[in-house]
Write a structure and sequence with these properties.
May play a role in plant defense. Probably has no oxalate oxidase activity even if the active site is conserved. This is Germin-like protein. InterPro entries: Cupin_1, Germin, RmlC-like_jellyroll, RmlC_Cupin_sf. One of its GO terms (molecular function) is manganese ion binding. This protein has 222 residues and is α+β, with helices and mostly antiparallel strands. Among the domains are: 95 residues, Jelly Rolls, CATH 2.60.120.10; 28 residues, no CATH class. It contains 4 helices and 10 strands. The strands form 2 sheets. It has a 5-stranded antiparallel beta sheet, with no helix packed on it. Helix 3 packs across helix 4. It starts with 7 loop residues before the first helix and ends with a helix. The relative contact order is 0.14. Bound molecules: 2-acetamido-2-deoxy-beta-D-glucopyranose (2 copies).
Length: 222
């Protein structure tokens, strides 16, 4: 169908596109409405974010975080450890729309396929050699091996992973445009939810028999 360029429909769709153009920043957490809002994680009320600690009780320490000074313990089944620097560990980030993680990897260690519902992610490798990969919503896989000083970006919500393919430990730092990016870790989300997703859903979804689902579940039972 050809729509004359002066039709009301055409003009409305142009207006709609124009309205959307100036607002790319809507893909991050909302802007703060004050200089700072140190999270009061103990507050009994719940808002979109955390209520602020009274300004009179704020100290310099609220703006600093030393959680990344220690190497993470990588003796988990994945051989990797994520130390979060998000609003829950560093309440000074509350409402500021940003956070970071420290990622430690044993040789062969994996940060398993996962996605962040509320943020894009960028990261830099500090030590070692990491295979970083993600998959688009069109199921296209992008990946690269990165060494110290090299950066990557994972667009918001896409499934991605990092794997240490070097012979030594690896270290990286990541940053998010959310104070609490959230993490959907696929193997745990699908096979270790409480309560469990029904077996017949998973056998049909993955086109395998129940014993395979049970075998995978058993790896995550603890
Ligand atoms: C929250 O509670 C903990 C322990 O009860 C306390 O140490 C901390 O200072 C409290 N934080 C705020 C912001 O009130
Ligand atoms: C790392 O964690 C494991 C088990 O969780 C523990 O046995 C080990 O002592 C820890 N290592 C260090 C250096 O803390």
């Amino acid at each position: 169908m050809i729509i004359p360029s002066t039709s009301p429909f055409h003009m409305l769709s142009c207006l709609f596109v124009l309205l959307l153009l100036p607002f790319p920043s809507f893909s991050a957490d909302p802007d703060p409405l004050q200089d700072f809002c140190i999270a009061n994680l103990n507050a009994s009320i719940s808002v979109n974010g955390f209520p602020c600690k009274p300004a009179s009780e704020v100290t310099s320490d609220d703006f600093f975080f030393d959680g990344f000074t220690k190497e993470g313990n990588t003796s988990s089944i994945f051989g990797a450890h994520i130390t979060p620097g998000n609003v829950l560990s560093f309440p000074g980030l509350n409402t500021l729309g940003m956070s970071m993680n420290r990622l430690d990897f044993a040789p062969g260690g994996l940060n398993p396929p996962h996605s962040h519902p509320r943020a894009s992610e960028t990261g830099v490798v500090v030590k070692g050699k990491l295979l970083v990969g993600f998959v688009t919503t069109g199921n296209v896989y992008h990946s690269k091996v990165l060494s110290a000083g090299e950066m990557f970006v994972i667009p918001r919500g896409l499934v991605h992973f990092q794997k240490n393919i070097g012979k030594k430990k690896a270290l990286a730092f990541t940053a998010f445009n959310s104070h609490l990016a959230g993490s959907v870790v696929l193997p745990l989300n699908i096979f270790a939810s409480k309560p469990s997703i029904p077996d017949d859903v998973l056998t049909k979804a993955f086109q395998v028999e129940e014993d395979i689902i049970d075998a995978i579940r058993s790896k995550f039972s603890s």
